[in-house]
């Protein structure tokens, strides 16, 4: 068993749960129901939300499998783990400056998802070495 990948899988699963509950209620639905935003931007945001949903679910399932040495159809779980780690770290690298420059009071805390992304990404990368 790879404990770093287990931690990444647990955090990724928690992020998925938050995405489908809090994210849907507090972020997606207000945008979709807003009359201040046109229909095309609303549908694009709806699509983007679920692109992230798909990515998070797939990566969570893979991380759970890899944590318990199950390779699914992959010859190299290390390559897939590297890709997952890089992607989540990239999400954090994008979100942190947005949060800092958001002009929100305590923007880094209010836009907290980067914490999950860093934990997942770092655990993935550390599991390789």
From TrEMBL:
Keyword Membrane attached: yes
Alphabetic keyword roster: Membrane, Transmembrane, Transmembrane helix
Keyword Transmembrane helix in record: yes
Source domain of life: Bacteria
Membrane-crossing residue ranges in chain numbering: 48-68, 80-100, 112-128
Designated name of the protein: Uncharacterized protein
């Amino acid at each position: 068993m790879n404990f770093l990948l287990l931690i990444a899988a647990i955090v990724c699963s928690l992020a998925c749960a938050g995405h489908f509950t809090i994210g849907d209620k507090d972020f997606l639905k207000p945008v979709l129901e807003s009359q201040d935003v046109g229909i095309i931007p609303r549908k694009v945001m709806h699509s983007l939300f679920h692109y992230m949903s798909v990515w998070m679910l797939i990566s969570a399932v893979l991380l759970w499998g890899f944590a318990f040495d199950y390779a699914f159809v992959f010859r190299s779980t290390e390559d897939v783990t590297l890709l997952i780690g890089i992607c989540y770290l990239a999400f954090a690298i994008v979100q942190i400056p947005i949060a800092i420059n958001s002009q929100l009071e305590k923007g880094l805390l209010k836009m907290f998802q980067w914490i999950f992304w860093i934990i997942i990404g770092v655990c993935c990368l550390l599991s390789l070495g």
